[in-house]
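PT: before anyone asks, these are the final sequences, not the draft ones from last week. 860 residues across everything. Please model them as a single complex and drop the result in this thread when it's through.
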Amino acid sequence: QGTRDHPPAHVVLRDRLLAAVVACFKRHGAAAIDTPVLELRETLMGKYGEETKLIYELQDQGGELLALRYDLTVPFARYLAMNKISTMKRYQVAKVYRRDNPATTRGRYREFYQCDFDIAGWFDPMLPDAECLKIVHEILSDLQLGDFLIKVNDRRILNGVFAVCGIPDSKFISTCSTVDKLDKMPWEEVRSEMVGEKGLSPEAADLIGDYVQRHGGLDLIEQLLQDPKLSQNKVAKEGLGDMKLLFEYLGLFGITGKISFDLSLARGLDYYTGVIFEAVLLQQEKEPGEEPLSVGSVAGGGRYDGLVGMFDPKGRKVPCVGVSIGIERIFSILEQRVKASGEKVRATETQVLVATPHKHLLAARLKLISELWDAGIKAEMLYKKDPKLLKQLQYCEDTGIPLAAIVGEQELTEGVVKLRDVARREEVRI
Amino acid sequence: QGTRDHPPAHVVLRDRLLAAVVACFKRHGAAAIDTPVLELRETLMGKYGEETKLIYELQDQGGELLALRYDLTVPFARYLAMNKISTMKRYQVAKVYRRDNPATTRGRYREFYQCDFDIAGWFDPMLPDAECLKIVHEILSDLQLGDFLIKVNDRRILNGVFAVCGIPDSKFISTCSTVDKLDKMPWEEVRSEMVGEKGLSPEAADLIGDYVQRHGGLDLIEQLLQDPKLSQNKVAKEGLGDMKLLFEYLGLFGITGKISFDLSLARGLDYYTGVIFEAVLLQQEKEPGEEPLSVGSVAGGGRYDGLVGMFDPKGRKVPCVGVSIGIERIFSILEQRVKASGEKVRATETQVLVATPHKHLLAARLKLISELWDAGIKAEMLYKKDPKLLKQLQYCEDTGIPLAAIVGEQELTEGVVKLRDVARREEVRI
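LR: through. Structure below.
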């Protein structure tokens, strides 16, 4: 349930998509690592907030207690700590596992690919963070997925908002995950979850609502820096200062047009400590004057400065920021587009079929195809002793093989091969 | 335990190796599929003989009972049956999981890559089988791993041998796995396991011994076809007839020089029904006249005509033959070779570092690097506001970046960039 087999046409398309994403990661100087699908259970526990219950655990068959990785971020942090690495720019493309309710039509599976890029190390503020946003911008532009928006916020700003609204520290994380639902439900419902399930006072909820429903750019940052309450809060001020710097850098990259500072963005995971972001594709057809509707998140990430320290015996910290590209949702979109375009995706790359026009020529076919393979040419033949020529040519048409190399008695005698262009039905002797 | 993280230098090397293997699979017209790491437990049970105990099982967290795939063959057979596919040439490169005793120095892990190529369908005998052996020959030749030998046998011949030696059918499979140990232990020990653990009579064991210690080529096949006992056994005769045909095809491919018909080859898995084979690398330095010593299996496979039928509700059969390349062991060999050669494997592909010679030029760096990225150039910069030029050039040398693009006040004024060849210490203004 919630997993799927990928047939050849899928794999071909997906490999194209992954190649574009990996090309971007390499363009930004990232190195690849590979970590096991299996992690120690204790490595994963306490890192994913309410989502911890979605972790797949292995049966205790003796030895270590294991689980399947839930994302690529926690394994990366473990890798850095275990190997005492304090500076690294890495990417990883691999499958992760979540016992979620599958919604396969919307591209949500229990086994799915993640494509992660992360920058670890002590650096001047916001430079790696800005690069992560640049990467999201490049990938979504390269893939021509239509209009998109990258929402940005900062956990420190949110925490500051919660603090000045009178929420106790202990409720920050759970309030975060409620705020995070603002992209899926109206404020009224989010408010009632805050008051009902999370036990906030109606007054506090309303105060929060005044803040988290705002979004904008530099203007909003300036406005909040002047906010009488928020400007008194140390962490909020820090977050807002960094947000201003981030927008300056994004301006130099020329990409602020697609960035929105959005106070409703919270992201559910425990480990974020600073900037957080999420990219959404915008609905194509919209009425003039209407707010563009989001059709779903296709990338997300943020800063997690405390995670590596949780795995280091001495608690030694390594600040990190990273982004994860939601390849499955993008894949669904590309797949629909290919279907709509009528493009026929070939499952194989075979260049030539080695064929014979009559019986008793199997040896000639085997010798010729062997020569072609040894010369690096992608070649196939039918696994029949005496196939009919028509069947062989039909196979070319069915599978998109452009050429047939035909050897009959006459060709053998003359030491030539008849090369047939299958689509044009033209032949040359070579 | 038994798993490992792969650092960037590993991944670069491994990707090179996988690319060579996949290129060969594509050359032979295979299409790729991808199946989940998770399979239903019942799919895997009863397919791996004594090795079933090595399957990783997931905890029962509600829902289906799951396990991690043990190989790529059983998932492929399930895929064919589920999708009612009766003809397919496919490859798959993916990790598999075995709760084995890890021997990491010899490249044996609990999580490891398999590279599988399989041909499914009703075809004329031995044509797909011969292609599988050709593929092993091509890959081991392409990778220049030194001398190798591909041992070939047939389950039907082995079963015939067991039958004429008076072994009851019920003991065929367990006798098989004992015979299979002949490459690791001398006949005396194998014989005593047969008599002691497996309960064969000493006479039967000796009769088996007379057969399974033989290896050769066409001559041995002819000899066994004349064998008074074996020639009376129907399955053995079938197997020997096909073996003769196989050698004929391998002759046309020009590869019989590296193929040995070896009656001691048995392979442990339950599902094989016909031809089986295994490739071993031979020790490089050997004394003249000495038998070349095997240093381990690097590929193996065979025919499994009954497996797909086990997954089909109507028991509909699809004959299959396939090969699995033991990429981990080959990787260990290549890694040692790279180490010995002193080749420095770059972890990244960065072409240019964007650098500045003095302070207050961060904006210039950000603008230039953004232009480079947008032009598809692999570029990095240090994440510092005002890095020293020496530090920047040092970073190029440490990570193998060949060029530095330097912008200072003067360059900005003149609208140029100074491009420095890091190794030659030469600069041009462009």
